[in-house]
Amino acid sequence: MNENRNLKILVADDDLTFLEIAGEKLSQRGLNVLVSTLGEAVSILKREVISTVFIDCNKSKTDGAKVMNAINSLEDRPLVQYFGQLSEMDT
After folding, report:
1. Which 3 state secondary structure label does DSSP give 87?
2. pLDDT tens, position by position, for the chain (91 residues)?
3. Burial class for 82, CB neighbours closer than 10 Å (0-12, 13-18, 19+)
4. Is the dihedral of CA 68, 46, 50, 75 positive or negative?
5. Which of the four, 13, 36, 55, 67, has the lowest number of CB atoms within 10 Å?
6. Residue 23 backbone phi and psi in degrees, to 5
7. How many structural domains compose the chain?
8. Model confidence, pTM
9. What does each C-alpha distance from 5 to 24, 50, 60 come to in angstroms?
10. How far apart are CA 71 and CA 81, in angstroms?
11. Can you spell out the DSSP letters for 10-68?
12. Which domain holds residue 72?
């Protein structure tokens, strides 16, 4: 059994093409991947145990800030890998 399947990765972005490609490529490597828009990411974080979050903080300041705040409120916080500039968000 692939150990990577036990860990869930969330990729959150508002670029649907990017999400499709990222989800496909990471899944092909045997990873358990969830993809969502930034607006949907908070509800996923509330119901799923996520080990790593890849988040776009550049495109949507409001939604990106909500996701980061949701992550910060979790008891077991996932590893966060972000792209974009966090300084642009009101976190």
Report:
1. helix
2. 455 567 899 999 988 999 999 999 999 999 999 999 988 998 999 999 999 999 887 655 567 778 888 888 988 899 998 876 655 444 4
3. middle
4. positive
5. 36
6. -60, -45
7. 1
8. 0.81
9. 14, 12, 30
10. 12
11. EEE-S-HHHHHHHHHHHHHTT-EEEEE-HHHHHHHHHHS--SEEEEE-SS-HHHHHHHH
12. 3-87
Q: Which class for 11: exposed (0-12), middle (13-18), buried (19 or more C-beta within 10 A)?
A: buried
CATH number of the domain within which 67 lies: 3.40.50.2300
For 12, the token pair is 């959150």
Tokens of 60: 């949507």
What does the buried/exposed string (b/e) look like for 49-77 if buried means 16 or more CB atoms within 10 Å of the residue's CB?
A: ebeebbbbbbbbbebbbbbbebbeeeeee
Amino acid letter, residue 14:
D
- pLDDT at 1 (0 to 100): 44
